[in-house]
Design a protein that fits this description.
heterodimer; A: about 120 residues; 7-stranded mixed sheet; 4-stranded antiparallel sheet; B: about 110 residues; mainly beta; 6-stranded mixed sheet; 9 strands; about 45% strand
Amino acid sequence: QITLKESGPTLVKPTQTLTLTCTFSGFSLSTSGVGVGWIRQPPGKALEWLALIYWNDDKRYSPSLKSRLTITKDTSKNQVVLTMTNMDPVDTATYYCAHSPDYGSGSDVWGKGTTVTVSS
Amino acid sequence: QSVLTQPPSASGTPGQRVTISCSGSSSNIGSNYVYWYQQLPGTAPKLLIYRNNQRPSGVPDRFSGSKSGTSASLAISGLRSEDEADYYCAAWDDSLSAYVVFGGGTKLTVL
């Protein structure tokens, strides 16, 4: 059974850097084709895809946020970390991590999400 | 502004069949698979359809997906009250470095 859980601060100040951790079980990020991605959803708004990292360390980013995002993995810890720099109140959202079973596929299993508020 | 275009709302009565459209372009829907997600209030999205028309195990066959050219559709037959949710389409986009794009979501109301 695949599970993912997001963790990180619930409140960050404007201009700060956000660091979120996705801890997963039920699969390995060393398995060919597998990836873990991040998606966010501002309150009352649509889903927005952020980034994804594959088993081979191939990384994909949203073009509009690429300059602010970094995604890394720690295979031994079953974790994926997303950092987002220069946080702004518009970045207030629920952040989800999700499993991707194949190269170029969609996410099939999602975590429950973690809510991040950006405010001074 | 989402890259994929969905109607903001849809509605139907119990037992009816409803469809939700998702319009894109040649760089996303036109050349990649479409995925559909259901998001019940206060919960994380759940995969409903993958690779245009495939259902994960556990998803009722009342849900079906199709794709034609640069558009896709989700159909729900035998509408039930528990289908009231937000529905999102998604696809990979090859226009820049490959990345995923979502639709703006469609809120389905069961009257």
